[in-house]
Specification:
alpha/beta, 13% strand, two-stranded antiparallel sheet
Length: 213
């Protein structure tokens, strides 16, 4: 077992050497460690991963990296910015809706992003901006892997990997009753933190060279 673990770690190192092909620059030890952890999570096909980091640190890129190196890679990588839509539209986008669910709804209804991500990965960016109502529906999915379309009467079984990201302090938001504690516990089964660029100056020259190319 130790020998096989060593071989897998060596393969992980080889994969890290190929990161430039994935537009990821990692010269600093802190960023390499984050990517090693991400590779291990991808290798065990982990779900319910929470990526933390300031705006612009590359949380979406890391989520795509995990998806690409996991068993989910053959299916879709679907992403949505949870802060970009109002609550009613976000709920319809995520869970879909049945015909006549609301004024302006399509006659045939519409599949949600959960259905589109079936067998693949759903990346929920800016998860800290979710309303409490949508948080409750997301928690239900994480509990039983079933969704209820808006206006629907039957739940649908969906299996996909969930990766969430935030630049907010979710612990503080739970204390302020702005984020559900039970949902936070569900989402951060595994947590990855991306250090800001000011804390990894070794990456600056490599990033500059990449941008110039």
């Amino acid at each position: 077992r130790q020998e096989s673990e060593k071989m897998r770690d060596e393969l992980s190192e080889l994969t890290l050497l190929e990161l430039r092909n994935n537009d990821i620059v990692a010269e600093s030890s802190s960023m390499k460690q984050t990517l090693r952890l991400a590779m291990k999570l991808a290798r065990i096909d982990a779900s319910n991963i929470l990526i933390q980091g300031e705006s612009g640190t590359g949380k979406g890129l890391l989520a795509k990296f995990i998806h690409t190196n996991s068993m989910w890679s053959k299916k879709s990588f679907i992403q949505i910015n949870c802060a970009a839509l109002p609550e009613n539209l976000l709920e319809a986008e995520l869970f879909g809706y049945e015909r006549g669910a609301f004024t302006g709804a399509k006659e045939s209804g519409k599949a949600g992003l959960f259905e589109l991500a079936a067998g693949g990965t759903l990346f929920l960016d800016e998860i800290g901006e979710l309303s409490l109502g949508v948080q409750a529906k997301l928690l239900k999915y994480l509990d039983d892997h079933e969704i209820m379309p808006v206006g629907g009467t039957r739940s649908k079984k969906i299996d996909c990997s969930i990766i969430a990201a935030t630049n907010r302090n979710l612990d503080q938001r739970t204390l302020k009753k702005q984020f559900r504690l039970d949902l936070l516990h569900r989402l951060n089964t595994f947590t990855l933190s991306i250090p800001p660029l000011r804390d990894r100056p070794e990456d600056i020259l490599e990033l500059t060279a990449t941008c110039l190319k």
